[in-house]
Design a protein that fits this description.
Blueprint lengths: L1 H21 L10 E7 L7 H11 L5 E5 L11 E3 L11 H9 L5 E3 L3 H12 L3 E5 L11 E7 L27 E5 L6 H14 L5 E12 L5 E2 L6 E6 L4 H10 L3 E7 L8 H13 L3 E5 H4 L4 H7 L2 E9 L5 H7 L24 H7 L4
Parallel strand pairs: 1-5, 1-6, 2-4, 2-5, 6-7, 7-8, 10-11, 10-12, 12-13
Antiparallel strand pairs: 3-4, 8-9, 8-13
Length: 364
């Protein structure tokens, strides 16, 4: 039965790819250069920290972010997020975290990234569009596809859903410009070598860049960096795809991790759940610590009451270079000017008027 369901899923994804390959004119081609940061598999691979680094490295250019807004009220509509807020708590954790780090960068939420790109161009005329989780999105022409792959993944997961965790066949990797093998600081040298060999077999001509996650330290609810005492004990809670990496990072700082609480990826904490965590920590004299992405979903008042600490991280190439430099070494220029041919639009009818845009979309 599992093999049968896998074949059905594979047929559906293949049909979608073939459709957009035949009707290529349905793709919107922005004047801005589109850089997609996506993955081949389900679950977390570290896309948000990579987006942070790219936004920081490309800050001399006018950038915007196009994100799906997964499981938010605006996933099937539209939301423009910018400025320091306050912003609705129903926004996605990634969007809130991106906004907290880069409040000046426009973030457009909505499953229809095609229309989001049109509105972004009309309002801001960006030079670069960073497409979050865009490897499977086909209605927008992409200049660069960066695909993240988790070095901590199990080899049994390298199969199509539902037999494994791959959203598309592995051969699709050869259509990427580069593969970023993430979490190399946690995976053993043997496992990294095995994944590098596998990736080389799937896409021999696509460069693979090994990436590591580095701890930036612990911060309190006010954003102040702190040093935890050796006698302190911690309860870690998270709502991320692969919490094992989070625990490993905490232990790398020398923290005494006694207990943990795991929630589904992108889970929104209820007041009752947070009260339960606070009571559990108080009962065992533990300090609460979570990821920066999860912290954005907790109100400042509750965070202060619970005295929640956050772990900040950075994701960088193992080589020590920036992503811009590492990619340039492989002939991939993120901010290269687009040619006139790539800016050609197939139909001006795809672009709505300002008035139509205001009627069609909910904006901030």
């Amino acid at each position: 039965m599992l093999a049968y369901l896998t074949k059905i899923y594979g047929s559906l994804t293949a049909a979608e790819r073939i459709f957009f390959a035949i009707f290529d004119f349905l793709k919107y081609r922005p004047q801005a250069r589109v850089i997609s940061v996506g993955n081949l598999s389900m679950g977390g691979t570290g896309k948000t920290p990579v987006l942070f680094e790219l936004l920081d490295e490309l800050k001399q250019h006018r950038c915007c972010v196009l994100s799906r807004g997964y499981r938010s009220p605006w996933e099937r509509s539209f939301y423009h997020l910018q400025g320091r807020g306050p912003h609705p708590s129903e926004l996605t954790d990634e969007a809130l975290l991106l906004n907290s780090r880069f409040p000046e960068v426009p973030i457009f939420l909505g499953k229809n990234r095609h229309h989001a790109a049109i509105i972004a161009e009309k309002r801001f005329k960006p030079e670069l569009m960073l497409l979050d989780d865009g490897f499977q999105y086909r209605r927008l022409h992409k200049d660069i596809d960066l695909v993240l792959f988790d070095a901590m993944a199990d080899f049994s997961e390298a199969q199509l859903i539902p037999a494994g965790r791959l959203r598309e066949p592995a051969w699709r990797l050869w259509q990427a410009q580069a593969v970023l093998l993430t979490r190399c600081e946690t995976a053993s040298a043997e496992k990294q070598a095995e994944w590098l060999s596998w990736l080389k077999q799937q896409a021999p001509k696509v460069p693979v860049i090994r990436v590591q996650t580095l701890c930036d330290g612990l911060y309190d609810w006010c954003g102040n960096r702190i040093d935890a005492g050796k006698e302190e004990r911690f309860l870690a809670f998270s709502a991320i795809g692969r919490p094992a990496g989070f625990y490993s990072q905490l232990r790398s700082l020398g923290l005494n991790l006694v207990d943990n609480a795991e929630f589904r990826d992108h889970h929104r904490f209820t007041a009752a759940e947070l009260q339960t965590l606070a009571a559990k920590a108080a009962q065992s004299n533990l300090r609460l610590v979570c990821t920066e992405k999860d912290f954005c979903k907790i109100s400042p008042e509750i965070a202060e009451q619970m005295r929640v600490l956050t772990l900040r991280i950075r994701t960088l190439p193992v080589s020590g270079q920036t992503f811009t430099s590492e990619l340039a070494a492989h002939g991939i220029k993120l901010a290269e000017q687009k040619s006139a041919q790539s800016r050609f639009r197939f139909s001006d009818k795809l672009i709505p008027s300002d008035r139509q845009g205001q009627k069609s979309y909910k904006t901030l």
